């Protein structure tokens, strides 16, 4: 039972909710405006490559998912506050809009209150999501859909100028993809603001993540077709992500403690630099293994590498973190090490390393957690040994790693639009 | 003379009119392109005199453990082009020739013996000698899968109020109904007629190519005693009709258990159920490959089939439970929760189910309960 310590809040939640009985859905409630629903869905079915489907300003109601599987289609609204696709009355379908197509652009509209994910793009190349708002209105709640903007198994993805609010998992979630830029976007009041998972080559920059449980997450999960590596998180504002975790236990982000700025979990070659990260009450930056997230060792195929390696943190402006961690053991640690009014250091590391890769008791330089960040300290909480020897060991992390190259997208994705 | 000639002409005309009134038997009509507006345009199924009839050359079939669709009864039928065969495949759907039409009709027993929106379930009802009575039954939709030159196309047709023909609904439809369970409990639900893309949600079993494929006509689903020809194996019947190429014989074909067959091993029944209800998406190539969960019957049991597996993108679908399958603990297993719930954002399958399949849930519950092991 080692290794489930950092995120003990998760197990507390799990205790509360074990044996939860499924709730029954409401009875039939047909959509307010089903004529537009049929018309738009038929347009999506009949679209030809190159078509631009425009949706004028207005609020449109849908009682079931929309879907598109024609390559080369653009869906364009009149603005993320003007064209609103509302799924408040949804009775069927696991997302608002499901896209299984290449060369897809969606821009200038909002998708609200879907039962499941707002926008899911499952397998596709050259995807632009621009100035789209995905939101669950009202106070954030567990029954909200999982993901706001959700490209998965995609290649060449630009998410630009978007807004995601209220997701019970991640507001902006890019999974199992390659070549991704998430920029100029705002994630607020989600469990995870922006999450990059099992993805190769992602740049996450010039975003604002605030009021989430965790601001920006870079995760690797087991049993998937590809692991991930090479994410750069830079020039973002990651501030006051202290929302109570409202994800259901068992979900991937439910183990994230409230007050997490940036979390790297089991991912490799992650660069975190030039960000403003402040006011995240558990820690401004957390580097951990899935062993700290309550995953079962029986539930991982042997191919999975659970260790975060080659993480490089430098040149960030870190402040005001770690003052009130959302985790009993971390709270005890804070008081014991730093006094009742003290704060945990800016960077928490759970201390898991791959024993097979140690050379003379230490990781080779390229696999280390390296920190070059004025005054920022690293606390090794010693999760593998049940918190017995937590220590600030900033010197051990005073290394430098080779910087990653910028993500390059095809030129047509980056054209102003 | 002239008058007599006219009279004769009139008689001939009248005879011709009479002949036109008596309905000619429809024959399967393959449409190589376009979206025929009516089911009758395909000529595979017709309704007259209170009976649903399969046209000549249309072969009914059923499968050992079917997909659950809100307790709808299903009549499956296939029409191959004259003289052509489907190529047998041991693991995938048979490769049907261009020109093949597959029709799957969804219908319910009426709870009150007449159509008032209330349906029920219970005994099977299907065609005998190519026809079945519709008395006490309500036709909901017929889905056509047609094998065109560029691949399969899926078209949903919704039966009209008069139950005489079905009309194309490419954008799908929600049909509110009430389910009366055999013990009298009633529950309102929204029956979903999928839109043409949602057909692909299940039938594009390889998302990379997004090609539609039939799901039911696989060897392991068809390898059972025929419901329509007494005393014969269904695959043998297909073979005898000249429908199969490369058929190795029933004993060499894989075979799924009938999930209701209490004499079959529990594991085989459960895996057959998960195959029929989940594996079209939950395979290494399907739309749910994103989850890393593989529920095909040939997948070796372990983390990839859900053992102690953490979900990837389940969101509220976890129900607060830790792992997909916790051996011995069905009420801590996410897999079972997602079968029990009927919230569209959390339930599985994502489409085509609005009420709980209580009997299927009971089977999977028992399977997990009897499973040995634990998740550390």
Structure description:
Helices cover 9% and strands 38% of the residues of chain A. Chain A has 417 residues and is mainly β. Chain A has a domain at 136-407. Chain A has a 29-stranded mixed β-sheet that branches. The longest helix of chain A is centred in the first third of the chain and has 13 residues, at 34-46. By secondary structure, chain B is α+β, with helices and mostly antiparallel strands. In chain B, 19% of the residues lie in helices and 20% in strands. Chain B has helices at residues 2-21, 196-203, 219-222, 234-240, 266-278, 334-340, 358-369; strands spanning 45-48, 51-54, 59-61, 73-79, 86-87, 101-109, 118-120, 131-133, 137-148, 151-159, 166-168, 173-180, 186-193, 244-245. In chain B, the strands form 4 sheets. A 6-stranded antiparallel β-sheet of chain B has the order 3-4-6-9-10-11, covered by helices on one side. In chain B, strands 1-2-8 form a 3-stranded antiparallel β-sheet, with no helix packed on it. In chain B, strand 12 and strand 13 form a beta hairpin. In chain B, helix 5 crosses helix 7 (358-369). The model of chain B is unreliable at 13-21 (pLDDT under 50).
Offer a quick outline of the entry.
The complex is a heterodimer of chains A (417) and B (376). By secondary structure, chain A is mainly beta.
SSE blueprint:
The complex is a heterodimer of chains A (417) and B (376).
Chain A: H1 8-17, H2 34-46, E1 52-54, E2 58-61, E3 64-68, E4 74-76, E5 83-86, E6 92-99, E7 104-112, E8 117-135, E9 147-160, E10 163-165, E11 170-175, E12 178-183, E13 186-188, E14 192-197, E15 200-205, E16 208-210, E17 214-219, E18 229-234, E19 237-239, E20 260-265, E21 268-273, E22 276-278, E23 283-288, E24 309-314, E25 317-319, H3 328-338, E26 347-349, E27 369-372, E28 378-380, E29 391-392, H4 411-414
Parallel strand pairs in A: 1-4, 2-5, 3-6, 4-7, 5-7, 6-8, 7-8, 8-9, 8-10, 9-11, 9-12, 10-13, 11-14, 12-15, 13-16, 14-17, 15-18, 16-19, 17-20, 18-21, 19-22, 20-23, 21-24, 22-25, 23-26, 24-27, 26-28
Antiparallel strand pairs in A: 28-29
Chain B: H1 2-21, E1 45-48, E2 51-54, E3 59-61, E4 73-79, E5 86-87, E6 101-109, E7 118-120, E8 131-133, E9 137-148, E10 151-159, E11 166-168, E12 173-180, E13 186-193, H2 196-203, H3 219-222, H4 234-240, E14 244-245, H5 266-278, H6 334-340, H7 358-369
Parallel strand pairs in B: 5-14, 7-12
Antiparallel strand pairs in B: 1-2, 2-8, 3-4, 4-6, 6-9, 9-10, 10-11, 12-13
